Amino acid sequence: MFETLSDWDRELFIYLNSLGSDNFDAFWIFVTQIESWTFLFVFFILIIFKFYKKKEALWVAAFTILTFLVSFGLKYITKTSVQRLRPNNVPELSETIRVLQFPVDFSFFSGHASVSFAVTTFVVFSLRKFTKWVYMFYLWPILFSFSRIYVGVHFPSDILVGAFLGYGIGIGIYYVLKKTKFVSLH
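RE: above sequence
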């Protein structure tokens, strides 16, 4: 069964990666760069300070950073333990796929997906009582995550596991903050 799932994962990756076009490469390379999204992380912190009083905002901002660190740490531990090769480093795929980046570290699970979904989920849960448009923030992790398949460095399962773990981490840390009573969260 694991082999069947692995085959589906590989075939879905090849299909999605093959949808790429030279006309869109620059866009997806920009999207996949962590530096391209730094402004959004700063925006998250600023909007937290807009909606919360100073002391509460400091707590929410600190827990946003904690969310990032927990997700990043779990990703690092898992990648070094599992040691799954990235698609761009699998010799059998080298002639089949489009590769626009060449990282040499491991693939499982996607740090881009886990960190972006964790931070976004925490921020959305923290701000949803103020405004419903915060759900649009999920556009970031969706684009960020898909870009990793487009540039040839993650299998779909890397993305899905990273996204689900990130979502869970974001919710979990939100509820930890909620239990502390440092911030009035609803």
